[in-house]
Amino acid sequence: MNTYLVGPDKKNLFGRRSTWDFDQALEAAESGDVIEIQAGFCPVDEQNNQSIVINKDLTIQGHVEATETGQNFTNVIDGVVVVDGATVTLKDICVQKRVDKSNCLSVKKGATLIADNVYLVSSAESGKNYPVIFISGQSQVKLNHVEVAPTKLHDGKFQIFAQNSTLETQNSTIAATISMDHGTLRTQDTTITNRESNALFAKNKSQVTVINTLIQGGKVGDKRYFPCVRIVNSQLSTKDTTIAMPNTNQALSLSGATATLDNSKVDSLHATQSTAVLNNTFIMESVALFKKSKLSGSQGYLVGHNNGKINLYAEQNSVVDVERLNFGILSVPNIKVDHSVSLNTEHLSYVQYDQKQDQFVTDEQGYLLLSDHQGEIKYFGDLPALEQLDQMIGIQNVKDEVNEFIAIAEMNKKRRDQGLDSSAMTLHSLFLGNPGTGKTTVARILGKILYEKGIIAKQTFVEVSRAELVGEYIGKTAIKTRKVLESAVGGVLFIDEAYTLATGGAQDFGGEAINEILKFMEDHRSDIVIIFAGYTDDMEKFLKMNDGLRSRIPNRFMFEDYTPKELVAIGLSDLKAKNYRVDAAAYTALVDHNFAVDNDHSNGRWIRNLNEQVVRKMAVRLAKNPQADLSQITEQDLADAQQ
């Protein structure tokens, strides 16, 4: 190993030069050699804004001198480019770029750069930022005791960028975004700051590990929002780390990502299709979960602020499954979730929080003290589809059959996901029964259940009848039918009064629609669920029309007529939803009387028509007495509606 001393052009007593020019030393040195720059000498002044390119293993050694406030770098060089698998070590040196659109360090083609006690500065005062450090092509950069100075170009694009490469930082201070694209980042005992963009951004299956680090920054702009830390389709793991972006709701933003937060402090968490694991971690303001996100872990603390923001918000089939959640300063409500959310937290505690000391209050043994104030959970939105089905009045046999149908479909899916053999289950179904028995409603709910369970890909529900499928001339029907079928791929197609496709005789185009449907069912066995609905007798004739129909539609659901008692329950529920009041006993008597006199087997339609008739009688009465109660249905109104 040789050492080349780089310094000014000065000759000794014998007329010989004792130092090398920087570029000559770089050319003469061989792998394993050291280039030492004499204290106080700055090659940058002679490099003409040109970065040096190194393709061999070298160490470039500078010198620092201690000052009262820290240290002074006595050597400054221009940018460094490392390529072709070389390993370069920089020690005790400043790397400065004086022009825009340039990198202080560029490491490519499987190369490695180790920076130990290095100061990086981009000093251009106009133009555009390029990454201060650029890493690509399975390369590696290790930063120890490195400081990246803030840029003077405030375009929000000052960053360390690593693509398909590895970056490690330790004991460093970085005033730039760290941006990872399918890369690996490990940062420890580091401060990362950027208040003009994300402080940390990772995407495309990156792996990020952060230990004992402060990450601060992010920006709320007029048109764009830059979370302090943004993780997209990647994994984040933190320990003893702070993510600081106060008074916002996305200090940490997860999208299609997984984050494990141990003994950390995060101002706020926003997750979409993601999983966040809290282990003794503090969320200082709020958590928001969207699109089947999951919040789990052993223990989390939601501190909260007196600003009216909800501490915990979740929707779209998300899951809250932290073993213990402790709430401090409560908003009202402090938890807001839609009915599709699974709130499975075993211990939900409301504890005392000292705002002056900025900490939870504990007793002498260190246990949290419970607060006198209790939180409020507010639910919104539609109930989960299974609960919607369960709350429907009557049709108990259909409910039981749907639950069995779903259980089998879910089991088969789980077996397939685990690589086990599973019986091929056809989801196409027959809904048989009189009108008004809930066939369309149950079909919609069934589609939601299948989607929520991950059995079908989309929450698409397409409802058609003969008119949307059959054309006016030969060839038109197949085109219309295929267009409808394709619109429902991934979801549910509901064909109401399907038997009408077989009622027009030999010259009718309904048969063409049926043939197109059968072919599509064969070609897209697992891509679509088709439900054929109609009167029982007519549907039996429909099945006999084509031998392939019955075998391709194995699931049969029989919708029975509602009983008078069930019709009363449906009718009272309908009136209540429209803010009408009525005596239940008198209303029941009306239903029983009219049902015995005139039951046309239209079920729900029959009870809705009866309610409309009652309201019309009420309107006639109110016309004569404008001061009467607009919500109260009287016994006289009911009597006037009798058949």
Automatic annotation (TrEMBL):
Q: Provide this UniProt record's keywords sorted from A to Z.
A: ATP-binding, Nucleotide-binding
**SMART domains recorded for this chain?**
AAA (SM00382)
| Domain AAA+ ATPase span(s) in chain numbering | 425-563
What Pfam families does its record include?
AAA, AAA_lid_6
The question of whether Zinc-finger is a record keyword is answered with: no
Task: Name the InterPro entries for this protein.
Answer: AAA+_ATPase, AAA_lid_6, ATPase_AAA_core, Autotransporter_pectin_lyase_C, CbxX/CfxQ, CbxX/CfxQ_RuBisCO_ESX, P-loop_NTPase, Pectin_lyase_fold/virulence
Q: Which domain of life is it from?
A: Bacteria
GO MF term list: ATP binding; ATP hydrolysis activity
Keyword check for Protein transport, yes or no. Answer: no
Q: Which family does it belong to?
A: Belongs to the CbxX/CfxQ family.
Tell me the protein's name.
AAA family ATPase
Q: Which organism is it from?
A: Lactiplantibacillus garii
